[in-house]
């Protein structure tokens, strides 16, 4: 399906979003939150996968305030990584959450939608999924190997909808001390479920990527699908 445009809440313009539609409708929607590489082939593939599970998938361009249409390849050399980190460092994450809030609102009223919306984020998007869980009315949120979440635990009390965190044990961006803080900070939280996958690295669920792990990804994706089916219908 062609990209759509969504108006930013602050009136600063419109941003594009990739949309993948399921065969059956009405359907719940999943806002797919990008890694640091933009809405690239991986994010489109993941969105298509969500649509194959029976959900409307919508992946907004969150780098648009810096550069529109970014699509980087993490397996294509250091220059791609350098640009990705520069874009991540230049991102106003509070504005990104506002854009995600606008995307959630848009997804609720899309043709063929049933009004229920979840988010699913990866890497940078995994961090933003946690922020979205605390700051928006999304019906569920899923974070894959989110970075820097240990610094956001003060917002955990605002999380009122189900949240899953998928953490890679060997993630160099989320070292053991950070993992321990997350586990302790969310211990006993009524809505948060944290899973640590032994022996795998960051991006273990990126199919075809250098850290892809079929077993861990299958288990994580099964937990994600179960939550989405329960919450979104």
Automatic annotation (TrEMBL):
Residues 15-231 form the Dienelactone hydrolase domain. The keyword DNA-binding does not apply. One of its GO terms (molecular function) is hydrolase activity. It comes from the Bacteria. InterPro entries: AB_hydrolase_fold (IPR029058), Dienelactn_hydro (IPR002925), Dienelactone_hydrolase-like (IPR051049). Keywords: Hydrolase. The keyword Hydrolase applies. PANTHER family: ALPHA_BETA-HYDROLASES SUPERFAMILY PROTEIN, CARBOXYMETHYLENEBUTENOLIDASE-RELATED. This is Dienelactone hydrolase family protein. It comes from Dankookia rubra. The lineage of its organism: Bacteria, Pseudomonadati, Pseudomonadota, Alphaproteobacteria, Acetobacterales.
């Amino acid at each position: 399906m062609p990209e759509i445009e969504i108006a930013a809440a602050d009136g600063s313009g419109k941003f594009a979003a990739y949309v993948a539609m399921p065969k059956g409708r009405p359907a719940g929607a999943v806002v797919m939150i990008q890694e640091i590489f933009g809405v690239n082939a991986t994010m489109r593939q993941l969105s298509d996968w969500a649509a194959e599970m029976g959900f409307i998938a919508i992946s907004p361009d969150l780098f648009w305030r810096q550069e529109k249409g970014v699509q980087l390849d993490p397996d294509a050399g250091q220059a791609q990584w350098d640009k990705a980190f520069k874009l991540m460092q230049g991102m106003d994450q509070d504005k990104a959450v506002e854009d995600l809030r606008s995307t959630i609102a848009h997804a609720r009223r899309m043709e063929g939608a049933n009004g229920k919306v979840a988010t699913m984020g990866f890497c940078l998007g995994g961090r933003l999924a946690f922020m979205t869980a605390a700051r928006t009315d999304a019906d569920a949120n899923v974070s894959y190997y989110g970075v820097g979440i240990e610094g956001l635990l003060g917002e955990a009390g605002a999380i009122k909808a189900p949240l899953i965190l998928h953490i890679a044990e060997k993630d160099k961006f989320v070292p053991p001390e950070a993992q321990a803080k997350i586990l302790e900070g969310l211990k006993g939280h009524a809505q948060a479920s944290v899973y640590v996958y032994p022996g795998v690295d960051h991006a273990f669920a990126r199919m075809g990527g250098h850290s892809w792990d079929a077993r861990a990804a299958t288990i994580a994706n099964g937990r994600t699908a179960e939550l989405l089916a329960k919450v979104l219908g």
